[in-house]
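Per reviewer request, we include the raw input and output of the structure prediction for the construct analysed in the revised manuscript.
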Amino acid sequence: MSHTAHIRSHRKPRSRSASTIAMRAGVAGGVLSLAAAGASASAYADEPVTQTLELPALTADMATQVAQSADATQQAAANYQLQAERDAAAANAAKQAKADLAEAKQKAEAKKKAAEAARKAAAARASRTAERTTLSATGTNSSTSTATGSAAAVVSFVKAQIGKSYVLGATGPSAYDCSGLVQAAFKQVGISLPRVSQSQSTAGTQVSLSNLQPGDILYWGSAGSAYHVAVYVGDGMFVGAQNPSTGIVEKPLSYDPPTGAVRVL
């Protein structure tokens, strides 16, 4: 043992300030706190962490803005619907106007055709009246003309057949059709005419209805496509096989004005 072991030191002990002691105590305390925190974190490391978020409370201003936005959306939808209804109404109106215009055009066209038909009918009536007047005058002028020669023979033959029957396709002697009678009459004077009225209407020289002579062949319809023929006998009269109801008759030209006439003799 040292001879100085039990001798107290004469050095004064270092005085530690309170701040130094407090700092060291704080550091120690912090270390202990970190250790405790680490132990706590290690203890709960395996447990899931649930986090709850709190939404901000709906204030009065926000509620007002939401309501205004909803009103605006509703108003926009109403405006769109109203515009759609207006567009549909305009389309329907345009469609109806188009249909009305087409109908009006059809009615106008029908009226125009009716007016044209009435005009033509009036012109036809006036023409027939003029023809009757002309034929009556012709008959008066022809009353002084006397058939002679072959024409007299033709006139005499057709007058002798008055009262006999009309039979389609018949050529005599007891019955005739219109062209059969004309053919038979001219056969008496040695002239061979075609069998049908269409051909007989072009068998001679075309003559005016205002310059008829006894023995001329009258026809109804167009030359070359006539549907009826007869013989002019003078004095504004003709003899023909008219139809099954009347048979062979003598009638004035005004009874049924012919279309034209041909002269064979």
